[in-house]
Amino acid sequence: MSVYEVEKIQDNLYSIKEDITNNKFPIIIYLVIGKEKAALIDTGIGSGNLSKVVRSITKKQVIVLHTHGHLDHVGADALFSELYLNCREYYLASNGGDFQALTNERLNFIKLNLKDKTEMYENIKSHIVKSEKTYYNNISDGDTIDLGETKLEAVSTPGHTPGSISYVNNKDHYAFTGDGIADIHWFDGKESIKVEDFLNTLNHFENKAKRVKKIYAAHVPKAFDLELVHDLQTAARAIINGADDEIENADYEFLKHGNLYAHRYGQATIYYDKENI
Ligand SMILES: [Zn+2]
Known about the structure:
single chain, alpha/beta, seven-stranded mixed sheet, five-stranded mixed sheet
């Protein structure tokens, strides 16, 4: 049994959907194939042998480019040998060095999402990639990864996490944004940066992604266009200017953000804490 679904998006670009939630919260891993090397954008929750799936698509050397260090993005890291992550995310990605606890947290995440599908959970549990000590190369804003005729530029997009990185390919008009730029954002006041700083992130991304037409986020199985960035900018500006919003409870069981205000504009939804704008 494999939870991975491979789809060819265009020449040399694939999505690998790892779905443990009946499409409610799919994890989308992307694979870019250059002339010399291939780049895997994140490794998902690690519910199975992702390396084998990647090998069925390409035999080229594969490097992993991380968008950030959350457990649903670094789960299968132990299967790969060359990985890049912004250094502000090292602690998060390695759970402060407690790998046993990290594996258990990943299993809990899967269990919570699968709810009553006990058999599927037991199956995944027996195949789960165990988290282990991983060496990460630091990657930061402005770094370029050359895969041979295909280049990805790292663009710092903090907000979702402090070291979130997006990868931009202006030549082929696409970008991978992880959870850094997506349709839904949470700013809960504790770990989050201010909405005002997120607006700077959006402006920076817009400047660096001038020729991007497709934005691939990590949990949405379709591409957004740059209109998403404009919608987020408009929503963020409205919040900064004191929008009259209601408190809402976000419908994601694994997130414990408490009561947050919600502001919507176009495709964008921003949940925020009025104490941290
Ligand atoms: Zn995340």
